[in-house]
Fold this protein.
Amino acid sequence: MLGTLKAAMRSARHVWYCAAIAGTVAAIAPAGAQSDYPNKPVKIVIGFPAGGPTDIVGRPFAAKLAQLTGQQFIVENRAGANGILAADYVAKSAADGYTLYLATTGTLLNPILSPKLAHDLFTDFAPVALLATVPALLVVHPSLPVKTARDLAALAKARPGQLAYGSSGNASMGNLGMESFKLAAHIDILHIPYKGAAPATTELIGGHVQVAMLSLSVLQPQVKAGRLRALAMASGQRAATLPDVPTMAEAGYAEVNADNWFGMLAPVATPREVVARLHTVLAAAADAADTKERLAAQGVDVALATLENFTAFLRSEYARWGKVIRAAGIHAD
């Protein structure tokens, strides 16, 4: 589904590029009562700590949106419970386009783990725009005597339950990706959840856990500094910034693809014209050369999709990862 979506995004890119270079965002805004949106600061709520992959994506977009609209777009980090706290907050906020939620693959899946949640991403939120995707990277602490994903699987089989991996929480991509690897390789590695990718990475560097499969944007600097050893890209292709690191498919685990995505949502009752304007200005921000360059330097790929494709993509991801959650027996914290 991700490959199909990326093809659709490429086909739509020309339309949005024309919009982005047509002048001010006001010139391409839909007519109507909300044509002056935004006329005050907008809050983008992120459910993870500063410095994590969601933050790395959110802040460049906030800066570009402010430049395009002339209004402040303020990032607010409300970390905890794998994004649940932030999602609850936004779901209960005024549906006027001034409080937005930057969702991730993991936060989409929270209802599967916690059926009694106060919110549901499909009924309480309006999809606005898919913004970016980030490939995942399988890494180990340098002290671990492995150099490939196959080596790690062999070591884990020799030491069942003795190795531990860190993630940014239950149902985060760090958890889902590693569990899909465990299922594919038939291995047992203990899961240690943290409150974000940044603290999980810190603990990995410190040797408190030995393995992680987290976003390339977070792990790449540590790999290049020699603090961590890269084993494989949990993505459909090698990373341009780490060209010598093979994919999981090349290692024999084609089913392990843990690309993380980031998309903007608004409270479900947000007026259609506000959602449309948000989508337009976000698309312009995504297609701006400086946004792409800033994100690419962090290992992030800009993603463009129509509202319809984004909605279908959310449904597909929910079904795909739901199977992994049930097979691995993942539970809420």
